[in-house]
Amino acid sequence: MAHHFEDFAPGQVFTSQARTITETDVVTFAGWSWDTNPVHTDAESAREGRFGERIAHGVLGLSVAMGLASRIGVFEECSIALLGVDGWRFRRPLRIGATVRCRVEILETRPTSRGDAGVLRRRFTLLDQDGEVLQDGEIGLLVSRRPAG
Q: Which one, of 144, 17, 37, lies nearest residue 93 by Cα?
């Protein structure tokens, strides 16, 4: 069923399927982002560092959270534009091998001033397999209204 602005209300919570962060994810992300910091790419150096092992890029977690949220199935057909990422926090390291899911809570809904679309203020929370919060923040989305008729 297609969702529209009118189908969302503050307090609704949607949870994605799970996905495991892989070695390939980290290597590929390092390659296309040019972020080759040793904490992500050098096992020996990372072993002696703060986390005791290589960890995934923080922004990889944000990207995965966005992808997981899109697979929930309620935002795709009504999405017009991403409005911004606010207050994103990296709470714990994203470890290679972690299985993560994204929880999306609707915080606020409001129609646009023109009235032809709506704005969803959403809190994204990236959780690991133990339910620990790895990352979180708000992501605004412009969505379509239900067609007349």
A: 37
CA distance 94 to 57: 7
Q: Which residues pair with 118 in a beta bridge?
A: 111, 143
Beta strand 133-144 pairing with 13-15: unpaired
Q: Where are the domains of the chain?
A: 5-144
Tokens found for residue 120: 């969803």
Q: Tens digit of pLDDT for each residue in 89-136?
A: 999 999 999 999 999 999 999 999 998 999 999 999 999 999 999 999
* DSSP state letters, 2-70: ---GGG--TT-EEEPPPEE--HHHHHHHHHHH----HHHH-HHHHHTSTTSS-B--HHHHHHHHHHHHH
**Within 10 A of 116 (CB to CB), how many other CB atoms are there?**
11
| Domain with residues 5-144, CATH architecture | Roll (3.10)
